[in-house]
Design brief:
homodimer, Arc Repressor Mutant, subunit A, two-stranded antiparallel ribbon, DNA-binding, Transcriptional regulator (chains A, B), Tscrpt_reg_PadR_C (chains A, B)
Chain lengths: ~180, ~180
DNA sequence: CGTGGTTAGGCGACGAATCACCTAGTAGGT
DNA sequence: ACCTACTAGGTGATTCGTCGCCTAACCACG
């Protein structure tokens, strides 16, 4: 359901193929969502079935035809309707914390290894976010649309920094 | 899969019924996981099938029998094996950011309403976490097990504070 | 006396998501 | 000549998760 909305949102930026969408999920919006390619193609089919998008086949030389999906007026309306509904409850899922919570029986060194592995991962992620942010340039002076897109990235930067700080503190003071 | 591990982890703390487990997911570990009760019961059955847990029926007066699930040695081994594997990739899913990212076409006031609703929710959550933390008392001087359990909560406090800070900044400077 | 919450366990249907695999041509590197 | 990656689009199986519903007795409130 939410994947359908996200795809509609991306289609407002430009008409796209399933392949294009997958690339967006893997790069530009990877800080807040990801999706399996099989699921993207299935969801696109459903959007077309429901009249929220239409396909235009664009033949290419030397490459497979592009099945460009264009959002329809009904699609734009469905997207707007979603954006104006109240916030829904978000399921909490933190696999790393799930591990750490039960790691008390492990030897101290093994827990430290876990924490260091996590820190390395989180540091890399932070680097990626910062590189992405640098690619956006100066946000002030942007319109609301660009501002909000940059803001979502900023939120992840902030929360990732908070985790790094926490990780260092745990590594320092764990008994 | 991960749910099975979490349940095994909880069963190391004490033998539990599906009902008990559900309460834990809703309270003590709600800062990093939640689970549907139907799924909990199904997973418990699978654990028993796989020999990772055994059931002991405890009859009660005036109340339904308790089907206490006890972790077995095989279960403890499976849990330890999981805890010693490398970190696996975590899927990113931030429904709120997904909305905000595409909210650029909304009127400014509607976006502000969204941000304020979020801030109210996040503030409540932070209060809950802090109350839970207060209930744990002083962490220093604890053993590693208790320390790590408290630390997972601390991580969420930190990241929630980071989001609040970010929310206030966005509310202040959104064009 | 009825209503709603607690304890305890469950089923069935559906939808969402993942995993592995497949087609098929182009292009670049070793 | 071979291997890998990129472009583009899928299928099928299976698992995971949610939603709604059901049984059944107890307890407290008004």
């Amino acid at each position: 359901m939410i994947l359908a909305r996200l795809i509609l949102g991306l289609l407002t930026l430009a008409p796209m193929t399933g392949y294009d969408l997958k690339k967006h999920f893997d790069s530009s919006i990877n800080h807040f969502w990801n999706a399996d390619k099989a699921q993207i193609y299935r969801t696109l089919n459903k959007l077309v079935e429901d009249g929220l998008a239409v396909v235009r086949v664009v033949p290419q030389e030397n490459y497979p035809d592009r099945q460009e999906h264009h959002i329809t007026d009904a699609g734009r309306a469905a997207l707007a309707a979603w954006l104006n509904t109240g916030l829904d409850a978000e399921p909490v899922r933190e696999p790393f914390l799930a591990r750490l919570f039960f790691s008390g029986e492990l030897e101290r060194e093994n827990v430290m290894r876990l924490l260091r592995a996590r820190r390395s991962e989180v540091t890399d992620r932070l680097e990626e976010y910062r590189a992405q942010r640098a690619g956006l340039g100066d946000v002030s002076g942007y319109d609301r649309r660009a501002y909000l897109m940059a803001a979502t990235l900023e939120r992840e930067v902030g929360r990732t920094e908070a985790e790094l700080k926490w990780l260092r503190s745990v590594e320092r003071s764990m008994p």
